[in-house]
Amino acid sequence: MGSAASATEQVLFGTAFTGHHSYAGQPVANPYAPPHLTQAAPTYSAPQHIPPQRIAPEPHKRAGGLVAGMTVLALIVGGAAGAAGGYLVADSRPGQSASALDAPPPAKQASTPAPAGSVEAVAQKVLPSVVQLQVRGRSAAGEGSGFVISEDGLIVTNNHVIEAAVDGGSIVAVFQDGRTAKASVVGRDPSSDLAVVRAQGISGLTVVELGRSDDLKVGQSVVAIGSPFELSGTVTSGIVSSLRRPTRAGGENGSQATVMDAIQTDAAINPGNSGGPLVNMQGQVIGINSAIYSPRTGTGAGGSVGIGFAIPIDQARRTADEIVKTGKATQTVLGVSVRDNPDGGALISEVVSGGAGERAGLKSGEVITMLDDRRIETSDALVAAVRSKAPGDKVKLVIGDGTRTVEATLAGQPVEPK
User: Fold this and answer.
1) Are residues 299 and 240 in the same domain?
2) Looking at residue 364, what is its pLDDT?
3) Residues with Cβ < 8 Å from 310, sequence gap 6 or more?
């Protein structure tokens, strides 16, 4: 997706960005307004907001419409009977041929297991673990998705799905078997757009199987499952379109920029899919659906154009594990502020005293062009690359044209959501 203008300075890894980025809690502009990225969950709608279109009849004249429909049905049945009678009479005439409508329906499909590796098999395995989350805040309501990671009710989702309920709101989890339960927030991390909630008073849930995302390949098949436009249990399929795609998604009240090292997919993802799983053909979760690119006009919600983004499960798993164990997440930081360099790379504008960058010998004015084997073309690419690592990981940074290389040990800092 598009990077920031070169003149815009960003906060990177635990220091205050200026411009439209912030990782220290300062307000930032929402980078996902059309025609850029849109959160895959519906925008929480105030009462005056026009809701997403639903597949439902018009509410007015409901009773009359039902009667009329029944009348038409009766007419169709009567007409069909007459046609059949006419056929029986005409059948004896030479030159008449039978219609496909006269053939008996085929036998029902045999109740056999779905072929391994098929979308059908993936759906059968994963659907019982996918949850619809109904969220209400003080003045807005919305819906999203999540998936079960413990049989007693732990659910992983996006932060932007549940953030409206944090301050005195409510969350209701709706499971595939029809059960519902109130849910509370265990912890959340706006910087990685992840949250864990717990459904209350429930047990015996089907738990997902987590896969890995570090061995994904472009072109491999994937399946997305969630509740787009309130249509719970929706299954779509596609491929991995790209990897390591620096993407800004989610956010706290639309003001907290988040940059992730996203998996791009063409599986249909729409408002309401946020927080739901992206799975491989073994039915293992390899990503968390979070954002879509969706050009839109007017006030209507954007829809899928085949460009969706998911948080890689390797990054999400580490963050979710921290939240479950401590209630908080740790953000991986390099300890520098950077901005886009006009000729490519991430230009260091400030080195934080005592930070990982200073300890590695990084200097203001230098341009980082590679992190390990990954080319760094923008400051967002560096943010995403660092966040894909864990605190304590060692990385090799190439400066400029490669005349200087430094090794840095990444640090971590607790995330304090507001």
Assistant:
1) yes
2) 96
3) 224, 262, 263, 265, 278, 286, 287, 288, 289, 290
CA distance 144 to 56: 20
**How many C-beta atoms surround the C-beta of residue 367 within 10 A?**
18
Active-site option among 129, 232, 237, 274: 274
What integer pLDDT is reported at residue 110 of this predicted model? Answer: 83
Query: Which of the residues 189, 193, 314, 340 is marked catalytic?
Result: 193
Residue 139: pLDDT band with limits 50, 70, 90: confident
Residues 349 and 408 placed together within one structural domain of the fold = yes
What is the model's pTM?
0.75
Question: What residue numbers bound the domain in which 225 lies?
Answer: 29-45+209-325
Cβ-defined contacts of 313-316 (< 8 Å, 24+): 313/210, 313/211, 313/212, 313/213, 313/285, 313/286, 313/287, 313/288, 314/212, 314/213, 314/214, 314/388, 315/192, 315/213, 315/260, 315/261, 315/387, 315/388, 316/156, 316/192, 316/194, 316/287, 316/288
- If one compares 35 and 167, the residue with the highest pLDDT of the two is 167
Q: Which residue has the higher pLDDT, 408 or 32?
A: 408
Do 320 and 216 sit in the same domain of this protein?
yes
Q: Which of 21, 129, 160, 191 is catalytic?
A: 160
**Residue 338 confidence class, pLDDT cut points 50, 70, 90:** very high
Q: Is 294 marked active-site?
A: no
Q: What pLDDT score does 92 carry?
A: 47
pLDDT reported for residue 216: 98
Residue 356: give its domain's CATH number: 2.30.42.10
Q: Where is the domain boundary, 279, 301, 325?
A: 325
Residue 170's φ and ψ, nearest 5 degrees, are: -140, 155
